[in-house]
Amino acid sequence: MWKKKERWTAAALLLAMVVVTGLCWYILYIRQQFYDEGTRNLLETYEQVDKSFAIFSRSNWNMLNEWGKSLQAANEEGLAEERLRSYEAEREIWRYSSVYLFNENCEYWSIRGKHEKVDHLWTAFEEMYRTGKKIEILAAYEPCFRFMAEWWKQLYGESEGKNGIGIFPASVEYNADLHSMGQYIQDGPRTLMETVVAFEQPQNEFTVPFAMGDPDRLNYLAGRRLSDISRMAQEAVKAAHISGGVPNLEVRVPQRDEAGFAWLVCFFELACAISGYMSGVNPFDQPGVEAYKKNMFSLLGKPEAN
Question: Distance between CA atoms of 15 and 149, rounded to whole angstroms?
Fold first, then answer.
């Protein structure tokens, strides 16, 4: 009898060991599958970023190259000012704020027809900077965009804030911040400009339901999609801020997906590098960050810091 029990006990222990071993192997297999899938997705994202960056750079370079050839030909015919006016009329198509054309003698024309000569190229941009718009706010009507905005602040703050110059990068989350920071943006000091990232296609759709008795007084919105309501809020806020003296730039992205993410990363990184060099700073170093690190390591007694 005892031998039979021992055999059953041994068989049960063996079965338990097989089950535990199988579970361990299964967990390791699933973990490897997750790792492989995550790696594939990350590589696909990087590949998409690379492709988007190449397309974005090529298209913008081609446009500027064509403008350069066109203006050179127009200048030889004495039609440069007329051509500039045609570019001014196409601002909505190309979605630019302004264009300045410089020659080797530091003489420039603005697209609005202003003729000036400056001692150095940066002087023209410094003049615009001195008008007081020294804080740029990045806004989006998507709560999940919050950490993209944090990355954007790190990118521009670390790249441009040097030699006593640089636009201060800040961010807000709409609609949540409209009743707090929105007051400051609308009526505070006129040192702000605003860049709004807008996604044209929502990830998910939600329709406002009808409520019996209209307890929240929102039945007038019943049947409307939340994305449409959010879009109306964007238009209302933009009109209010512009009328309040806050210049607005809108960056439109087709959809909040991998391709949209890649496009935004390429756009902001390229724009940051160009604006840094135009400001006369190296956008690829961080001397201010290194300064506090040296102090911290010295206070903590790191040997090579002393």
Answer: 54
- As separate numbers, helices (DSSP H) first and strands (DSSP E) second, the chain gives 9, 7
Least confident stretch, 69-83, 212-226, 255-269: 69-83
- What order do you get walking across the sheet with 192-201 strand by strand? 168-173, 135-140, 192-201, 248-255
**Cα gap 295→142, rounded to integer Å:** 38
Return d(Cα 23, Cα 145) in angstroms, integer.
39
**Active site includes 5?**
no
The pTM of the full predicted model, rounded to 2 decimals, is 0.58
What's the Cα-to-Cα distance from 112 to each of 103, 107, 115, 128, 292, rounded to whole Å?
A: 17, 15, 9, 14, 44
Provide the 8-state DSSP code for 162.
B
Task: Pick the catalytic residue from 88, 142, 158, 258.
Answer: 158
Q: Is the pLDDT of residue 194 over 60?
A: yes
What DSSP designation does 229 have?
H
Which residue in 3, 92, 179, 304 is the catalytic one?
A: 179
pLDDT in tens, 56-90: 555 555 666 666 677 677 777 777 677 767 766 66
* Tens-place pLDDT, residues 93-122: 655 555 556 555 656 656 555 666 656 545
Question: Does the annotation mark 90 as catalytic?
Answer: no
CA distance 224 to 215: 18
